[in-house]
Structures are given as structure tokens and as C-alpha cells.
Specification:
alpha/beta, Rossmann fold, 2 domains, 40% helix
């Protein structure tokens, strides 16, 4: 039976540490503040927002909600983003995507200051992930994978890691975060030939395929650590991952459950990024201690 890498244990540990960090910042007169910018009333956005607010309250950071109608104009939305950039009391901005089709999402993302982009929507934040420096943060879901590995003492140095998926939301950034921690990384995707032979050779397997049950028993081998990023709804209406848990769990050494795995940690990483941004604001001359930058010195799974 595989060890279950439960996200709750990771989230609880992060929450305790972040609460202590926030208390120290408050002693210095700094209250970390997250702005949540939402356009419309998408159910998945509302669900993630509730989770983020609950986690923020648990560690003592403030939340400012900015809700705009689904028919908001491009100019009005960009002006709201620029206003949050200028507001020195706001340390991090969470902006939900995708935006309604009438909006130029690329232009809206470009308007957001990378140092306040706590979920890696901007090219500046992505640059920080891939260069290991600069102002910005890794995607929260990608960073959550790393937090789980760290919490459970999985040393990735020199290990063979395989990432299934190559999106900018999870696949590519999590591969880069693993490289920054000195893993040897292979990325698989829909054009990979004989994928099972590649994934079986991994010591660490991160699956962000975007398809329920895509990874079955033939893809894994004994002793592997498997991180399942997927969140899907099966034919019975139950949440499931990109890994066929029933088939894979008896074989591998450790695995994250779905639900109760990576998703449980993602909002904690969001709050962690806000706290890091607030800490950086107390010493403007120095670069922020972002997860993207910190990983190089050894950040909602809604898209895979």
C-alpha cells in the first residue's frame, strides 16, 4: 500500500508558519493584503475565491474584493488593474481567468505588475520562474507540487522526474521548478512516443494531463512518488484525478489523493506568495523572496 501524501498535512504546516510570519509583519506595521479581481460569476471562480478568503483569514491577512460585471469594458477592467498596481496597501492580486471572450486577456494580464502577480498570470512572473530571478511568482498549483515534495521529505536532487503535461499553467513551470532543485526532468505530452516506457523510469512522476484516469498501471513502477495534479469529474459525478488511483496506488511508493492532495495546498501557496510580496515591500531595494526565485537557490488547478 502506497503512502498517501495528503494535502491537508502540508496546508496545516504552511498555515501555521504563515500565521507566524504575518504576526511579525504586523508588528512592523505591515498588514499583508490580497486583492481578488473577479469578472462575472463563474462557479469555479466563486469556489476558489471562498477558499482563498478562508485561508487568508486563517493566517491574518486582509482581502479586498473587486467584482466587475461580465460585460465590463476592456478600459474599465484595465483601469481597475492599474489602480491595484498603484495601491501600496495591496501586496498581491489574484485575477481569475479565463475572462469573457470580448476582453483582450493578454492585454489585461500585461497590465498587472509582476511583483503583485501572485499566481503567475504575467510574462514577468513566468520569466522569474524560468530564470530563477526577478520579480514574480510561480503558478500556485505548480508550486504546490513542490511544497508537497518538500513537506514529505522527498529529496529531488539528482532524481529522475517525469512531468506529464506541458502547459504554462502547470507542466512547464513545475518542470522548471524541479530543475531548479536539481532534478533531472523529462516532459511528456500528447506527441510522446511510448509514454508508459518513459514514465515507468521516473522516480518522481507529476501528472498534469488534463484527462481523467490517463495514467494507468502500465505507466508506473514500484517505489515511485506520484503527484496527481488533475481534478476531473467522473461518470458517477465524483472528483477524480488524472491518475487511475485504484490501479496505481497498489504499485507505487507514495501518491497524492484526489480530492485531498494538490488542490488542498494551492490556496496556501497563494497566501504564501502574498506574505512574501508583503515582506519584500518592507525592503524595496531588494528583490522579493518569491517562490520562483527561491527555488533556484536550493507558484486553481483549472488548466493542465
Amino acid at each position: 500500500m502506497a503512502e498517501l501524501l495528503k494535502g491537508k498535512d502540508v496546508a496545516d504546516a504552511l498555515t501555521a508558519k504563515l500565521a507566524a510570519d504575518v504576526a511579525q509583519l504586523r508588528e512592523k506595521g505591515v498588514t499583508p493584503m490580497l486583492a481578488i479581481l473577479r469578472v462575472g460569476e463563474r462557479p469555479d471562480d466563486l469556489s476558489y475565491e471562498r477558499g482563498a478568503i478562508k485561508r487568508a483569514e486563517a493566517v491574518g491577512i486582509g482581502v479586498k474584493g473587486v467584482t466587475l460585471p461580465a460585460d465590463v469594458t476592456q478600459e474599465e477592467l484595465v483601469n481597475n488593474v492599474l489602480s491595484l498596481n498603484r495601491n501600496s496597501s495591496i501586496h498581491g492580486v489574484l485575477m481569475f481567468s479565463p475572462l469573457p471572450k470580448h476582453l483582450d486577456e493578454k492585454a489585461v494580464r500585461a497590465a498587472l505588475a509582476p511583483e503583485k502577480d501572485v499566481d503567475c498570470l504575467t510574462e514577468g512572473s513566468l520569466g522569474a520562474v524560468f530564470t530563477g530571478s526577478g520579480r514574480g511568482f510561480a503558478p500556485c498549483t505548480a508550486q504546490a507540487c513542490i511544497e508537497i515534495l518538500d513537506h514529505y521529505g522527498v529529496d529531488v536532487t539528482g532524481k529522475r522526474a517525469v512531468v506529464v503535461g506541458r502547459s504554462l499553467v502547470i507542466g512547464k513551470p513545475v518542470a522548471q521548478l524541479l530543475i531548479a532543485k536539481n532534478a533531472t526532468v523529462t516532459t511528456c505530452h500528447t506527441k510522446t512516443v511510448d509514454m508508459p516506457s518513459v514514465t515507468r523510469g521516473a522516480e518522481i512522476l507529476i501528472v498534469a494531463a488534463g484527462k481523467a484516469g490517463a495514467v494507468t498501471a502500465e505507466y508506473v513502477s514500484p517505489g515511485q512518488v506520484v503527484i496527481d495534479v488533475g481534478i476531473n469529474v467522473n461518470a458517477e459525478g465524483k472528483l477524480c484525478g488524472d491518475v487511475d488511483f485504484a490501479a496505481v496506488e497498489p504499485i507505487v511508493g507514495a501518491i497524492t489523493p484526489v480530492p485531498g492532495g494538490v488542490g488542498s495546498v494551492t490556496t496556501c501557496v497563494l497566501i504564501k506568495h502574498v506574505v512574501e510580496a508583503a515582506t519584500a515591500s518592507t525592503s524595496p531595494a531588494s528583490a522579493p523572496s518569491s517562490s520562483a526565485a527561491a527555488s533556484s537557490s536550493a507558484s486553481p488547478s483549472r488548466s493542465c
